[in-house]
Amino acid sequence: MWDAKIGSKDQGDTDNIVDVAMRKMKFKTKPKEEKLSADTEKLINDKRKMERDPGEFEDIERQLKKAIRKNLRLYNTKMMRMP
Q1: CB of 36 within 8 A of CB of 68?
Q2: pTM above the 0.70 mark?
Q3: 64 near 40, Cβ under 8 Å?
């Protein structure tokens, strides 16, 4: 029934097996949309790199929390509006 050939490079790799099966079944998964914006990810990276200076660190932390809440709210609203 399933005549898809899975080569040695695919053995042990569940993702590749699933991809082969999906291609054989003729339907694909939709790529997921990112929940966080590029600006928010930049803030996360900036926070990771910075030293724990109390004043500046608290400002970045506050901006980051606000940006994450905003991004998640927008993402969830968009998901609810999709048919």
Answers
A1: yes
A2: no
A3: yes
